[in-house]
Design a protein that fits this description.
2 strands, 1% strand, disordered N terminus, 350 residues, mainly alpha
């Protein structure tokens, strides 16, 4: 897999040269920069904003590309097909991603928010930069199943795209580099940082209920080792004891690194908007938050790479939790739902 992705990245150098040579581009108009503001309680972004600063026209182009089925070989499956705003940019209808002609993937669509603060992408970290992440779903046979040469040809035939690319980028070219940068400009602006939790943390007038406070304390003692900090992920890769699904036998991080020590390890997801991002786990096998906590308390399967956090001497595998403690943790997790983000018209398709 890592060689395949390296090949894609190298191919970008070629695809970039496969750009429109049309002479009828619209002259560049004023393209104001968008304000990218790091929330007061957030870390510094991992994405280097100075190398691709979001602009009004770049964002507009990225949004249009995100929701356009032309990026797929069937003209239907867009990025937004599997990443729906109402569900924090995940997909409830399907347990695993559905691609062109009904093709089935093997993994659950991840939510899209706070991407500028993430270091690596996908469940196994196959993409090490946001600008190259879309290459994977666009070219995967079971997802969008398209080539960049094919996409560029389709975009060049659309006057609205000729205009948008010319307005968004100084070189005015329709090419893979500009296309990926525009998608990144759209995604890095997708910041979810206005939950009840954030308002409490920033002392903005909100106060936790007694149950939410109790849930937070339990969360700190039982969950925060992996789901750390304001992003609610340490961005590591761990084997969390899921029994092996023989249907997929997904080897996780090993698919990227080739290391036996990475087998069955997947990226620790952010828990922001977790109330709405079901089904859970990399393959969507768990339907509810109750199911998730039941897995951690009673459903662990042992293996050589099971994270040491779940191994307790002379005790069963997992994290001991009572039914009441689980409900309190879930009550706290619901304070991580960001209604402002979910209803932000800047990111909506229509």
């Amino acid at each position: 897999m890592e060689l395949r992705i390296l090949a894609y990245i190298i191919s970008l150098l070629f695809w970039t040269s496969c750009s429109s040579e049309k002479e009828d581009y619209v002259p560049i108009i004023e393209n104001a920069k968008l304000e990218f503001t790091v929330p007061a309680n957030f870390p510094e972004p991992s994405y280097n904003i100075t190398l691709n600063p979001p602009t009004e026209k770049g964002f507009e182009l990225g949004k249009k590309l995100f929701y356009d089925g032309r990026l797929a070989s069937d003209g239907v499956i867009s990025c937004g097909f599997c990443h729906i705003q109402d569900f924090a940019f995940t997909h409830h209808t399907h347990i695993v991603s559905h691609g062109v002609n009904g093709a089935l993937g093997t993994r659950n669509a991840q939510p899209l928010h706070n991407m500028a603060f993430m270091k690596e992408f996908t469940w196994d970290g196959a993409a090490i930069h946001l600008d190259v992440q879309p290459i994977i779903p666009i070219t995967a046979e079971v997802e969008m199943n398209e080539t960049f040469a094919g996409i560029i040809k389709k975009l060049e035939e659309q006057p609205e795209y000729v205009k948008l690319f010319s307005e968004a980028f100084e070189d005015q070219k329709i090419n893979s580099d500009n296309m990926l940068k525009a998608l990144s400009q759209f995604m890095i602006m997708m910041i979810s940082a206005n939950t009840k939790y954030d308002k409490v943390e920033r002392n903005e007038g909100s106060v936790f209920t007694e149950e939410e406070t109790a849930g937070l304390e339990l969360f700190k003692s039982k969950c925060a080792s992996c789901h750390q900090g304001t992003l609610f992920t340490d961005q590591s890769y761990r084997n969390n004891g899921l029994p092996i699904d023989p249907q997929y036998n997904d080897i996780g991080r090993k698919r990227v690194t080739g290391l036996e020590g990475d087998i069955y390890k997947f990226k620790v997801p952010s828990l922001r908007n977790i109330e709405l991002t079901f089904p859970y786990m990399h393959d969507g096998r768990l339907k509810t938050l109750e199911d998730v906590l039941n897995h951690y308390s009673d459903g662990m399967a042992d293996s050589e790479t099971l994270d040491p956090l779940f191994k307790n001497p002379n005790e069963p595998l997992g994290i001991p939790m009572t039914t009441q403690e689980k409900q309190l943790i879930i009550t706290f997790l619901k304070t991580l739902t960001d209604d402002d983000f979910l209803n932000d018209n800047r990111f909506s398709e229509f």
